[in-house]
Amino acid sequence: MAVVTEDFTEFPAPEAEDAAPPSSAPEADDGPLGWDGYGAARQRARERTGERESVISGTARIDGVPTVLISFEFGFLGGSLGERTGDRLVAAYTRARELRLPVVSLLATGGSRMQEGMRALTQLQRVAAQSALTRAAGLPQIAVVRDPTTGGGWATLGAGADVVLALPGAQIGFAGSRVRPADADPYAYSAEGQLAAGQIDAIVPPDHLRTTLGRWLGLLGVGGGAVGWPAVPGPAASGPAGVAPPPPPPPHALGSSDLPASGWAAVCAARDERRPRAAAYLDAYFDWREEISGDRCGGTDTGIRCGFGRRDGRTTAFAAQCGTAVRPAGFRTAARLIRLADRLGIPVLTLVDTPGAANDPDAERAGAGAAIADVFAALASVRTPVTSLLIGEGGSGGALALAAPGALWATPDSYFSVIAPESAAAILKRDANAVRDTADQLRLRPQDLLDLGIIQGIVPPAPSD
């Protein structure tokens, strides 16, 4: 823990643990199954590690930010979860809600404790219930996955966290090394493999962990008001007395300030490779930011960037399309981002820029329609303010999925259309020479979108100094 904290104050042991037989008489407590030698094994673990259980918890400061910290001791029976572990975890989550503090878990566990049988396994349900209550209270949960993290600890405290960070080379997976198929690819059970599969957000070297955790805790809302308010918010309320935060202002235009003369000119301007893309807008808009990765369903998409950034002392979440066809994993990641921001009461900025949703067979098999529907549903039900900016191509439903209803702005070098002009001409059985006329008929220019009431306005470039 010294790697990540400036100070740590351990919580008192739960009453049930204090009432247990003294450690000087291990033979008196072989657990609920009466497992021969279990009490002696626990006593040896205490002597070896200096701890009474596989988990310790308490209040801490991480890079100056207050939090409730849960840390697993793998040397204590493989960091396994038993009944007393469950008692400690329940107590830690309860205190986090009482103190209105986020939860950071440092994981290293082999799963449920076999010597306690089903009484150990059911602790996962207790942990999941506490995590759900903490989530409903609008408090963030961050997991740091160390080597190894397997079994129920990964499936609850790890994979169930809002943000999942992992140490390089950590063994991660529901199946431990001794119960996997003999021919299993070890990469699938590594931090690197889990990142590629969209199951964790980032791999962080140990010497960067404290700073990274501090940045995440500051962004997600702690004590001093990461979103510019005096207290940690409840669900969907980032201000005093439940007042919602103001919507984020749309970014200034970074490209051409000239409006296109024709529909086809608008399409060409948006498709120009020299036009500023999402990365440039995010760099210009935020003082600094951290990103999440993956849809938690097995996929990632480099065509969309999601995360949280700091601007003028406040936090804004962002989901930014990067100008490519968005894949199902990208839409699901955006939906995850929007729902997390909504739960924490953090406003959202979306940047719209895609020729459309990916429509190849792999995208269809991965559930393109369901993924787009998920984003539509997330934006339709969000309670925190959302601002959207069209910065390039607005290709049909794939672009509309990230466009907040009634809060969409556009840059001069963008367009939004029900369908690409080429596709419209083909469907209408027009020849290739009719594409330009079709673009005009679609009324897809920024000024057309404003006249039609689709956008709120056309953003200007930043004022010169």
Quick structural overview:
The chain has 465 residues and is of the alpha/beta class. 34% of the residues lie in helices and 20% in strands.
Please, could you describe this protein's structure?
With 465 residues, the chain is of the alpha/beta class. It contains 17 helices and 16 strands. Strands 1, 2, 3, 4, 5, 6, 7 and 8 form an 8-stranded mixed beta sheet that branches. Strands 9, 10, 11, 12, 13, 14, 15 and 16 form an 8-stranded mixed beta sheet that branches. Helix 3 links the parallel strand 3 (65-72) and strand 4. Helix 3 packs parallel to helix 5 (123-136), helix 5 runs parallel beside helix 6 (151-158) and helix 15 (421-427) packs across helix 16 (435-441). The model is unreliable at 22-27 and 223-241 (pLDDT under 50).
Determine the N-to-C terminus distance. Answer: 47 Å
Q: Helix- and strand-based class?
A: alpha/beta
The total count of helices amounts to: 17
Strand content: 15-25%
Coarse shape:
elongated
How much is the average pLDDT? 91
Number of strands: 16
Point out poorly predicted stretches: 22-27, 223-241
* Helical percentage: 25-40%
Radius of gyration, Cα only, in angstroms?
25 Å
Largest sheet: 8 strands, mixed
Task: Indicate the topology.
Layout (H helix, E strand, L loop, with lengths): L6 E4 L4 H4 L19 H12 L5 E8 L2 E8 L10 H17 L3 E7 L7 H5 L1 H14 L4 E10 H8 L4 E4 L5 E2 L17 H6 L5 E2 L5 H12 L42 H9 L6 H8 L2 E5 L11 E8 L2 E8 L6 H17 L3 E7 L6 H5 L2 H14 L4 E10 H5 L7 E3 L4 E3 L3 H7 L7 H7 L4 H6 L5 E2 L7
Parallel strand pairs: 3-4, 4-5, 5-6, 5-7, 6-8, 11-12, 12-13, 13-14, 13-15, 14-16
Antiparallel strand pairs: 1-2, 2-3, 9-10, 10-11
